[in-house]
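Table S2 (text version). Query chain:
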Amino acid sequence: MKGQKSCPDCGTTTGPRAYACKKCNHIFIFKAKSKEAKNTKIIHNFNWRDLVKGDKIKVTGGPYYVHRGDFLRMGYRGKFVVESVDKNGILAWGLDKSCGFCHIWMNGEMQNKETGVWKIPHKILKLKLREQTV
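Corresponding structure-token output:
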């Protein structure tokens, strides 16, 4: 059943977040978080113009093109390291295997009359290492 999981010992169905079977107390094993996921803090509200070289960001959204009713995404996605900031956006290096050096558009919404591409700001999250307590 969708949204449920079943116990491998007794077959009882439980919710997807259950830690143990309510009938036989079988313990379910969860996928461990990566070291990066455990040690990274996500900052939502910040001014992109305040980014400095070396900051890590996660990027989605951005420019798109509409062709015969099809919505074609043209923006960047993934994790990036900031190189610098200019008046229109962020210059950054991609951390994913398919990304190189890029300009992440952040300035505002506009349509290029020659190409028909809509430039809209990307959505970004700042990634910061959590402070370790020893």
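Notes on Table S2: Helices lie at 35-39. The chain has two domains: 1-30, 35-129.
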